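Minutes, project huddle
Topic: does the predicted pose make sense with adenosine-5-diphosphoribose bound?
PN asked that the exact inputs be recorded in the minutes so nobody has to dig through chat later. Recorded below.
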Amino acid sequence: MARKKITVVGAGFVGATLAQRLAELELGDVVLVDIPQTEGMPAGKALDIMESGPIYGYDSRVTGATSYEPTRGSELVVITAGIPRKPGMSRDDLLNTNAGIVRQVTESVVRVSPDAILIVVSNPLDAMCLVALRASKFPKHRVIGMAGVLDSARMRSFIAEALQVSVENVHAMVLGGHGDTMVPLPRFSTVSGIPITELLSKDKIEAINRRTRDGGAEIVNLLKTGSAYYAPSASVAEMVESILKDKNKVLPCAAYLEGEYGVDGVYLGVPAKLGARGVVEVLQLNLSVEERIELQKSAAAVKESCQVLGAAARSS
Ligand code: APR
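Predicted holo structure (tokens), as shared on screen:
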């Protein structure tokens, strides 16, 4: 049986690292695409990744392209194209530039892969998902955003560090928009099933929540020339695996909401079951009044950035 074809658009830090991870996991053959001005760059990176195959023991084919014909018939397309943040920039500062890029990329990929599932990574994430949904005209379950897996992974790292336990024992839930209004949920974050609210003081939990919210900026400030890519690419790889292997993992993802959590017409981070169809189901957590209010605030912030784009969604 032929291997599945996965396209990664944007052969920059996130895209190229993702291509490497997908190849190492042997999730399919990978086509790495960038703009024509980058000339041989995507092909060069792809070849370099392929040549690691004999050492790591994978047979995935990795190729690079500066046009979309080689991506024809992809089962899954990950969009990482865009510009990343610089110190002092919020994700929303990227809004207009990346919206134009994501729209053009989406139109190009769906022309040759009309049945694909799209995973959007470009920021500001929630607004870019809506741009991709509109441009693709795909059903909502086939356009998904990567944010919650990353934000939760950051929170898991901080919890594991605070309690000196293995990251493998830690689960965390971060909902809402991928920005300053994201909603870490300590009640739903656990160490071997024990909520962290029983293991850590209020102050320590608040510090973890804050560091989680600022997790992207912390890295931007250290790097100075770009944004995070190791944990983001690892997060996408987990989503791709759940979809292509039809595992139905429950992962926090940006999904298009139509009434869930009292939110309508925007993308927002919620726990979603990811399987062969894409988003198989959005799970509804029993939130407290305060948690619900925080989520509503986050939805309002996302809606505002979508309205700036003129992609105004229906009001909730
Ligand atoms: N089509 C294809 N590729 C494009 C396009 C386009 N229209 N426009 C830009 N690109 C490419 C760039 O040429 C570059 O190689 O997208 C790549 C982006 O790579 P980086 O600048 O290294 O950025 P990266 O760190 O990978 O982040 C990409 O992911 O996490 C988000 O905020 C981040 O929006 C940013 C995106």
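Observations noted during the meeting:
- The longest strand covers residues 264-275.
- Residues 90 and 179 are 8 Å apart (CA to CA).
No decisions taken; revisit at the next huddle.
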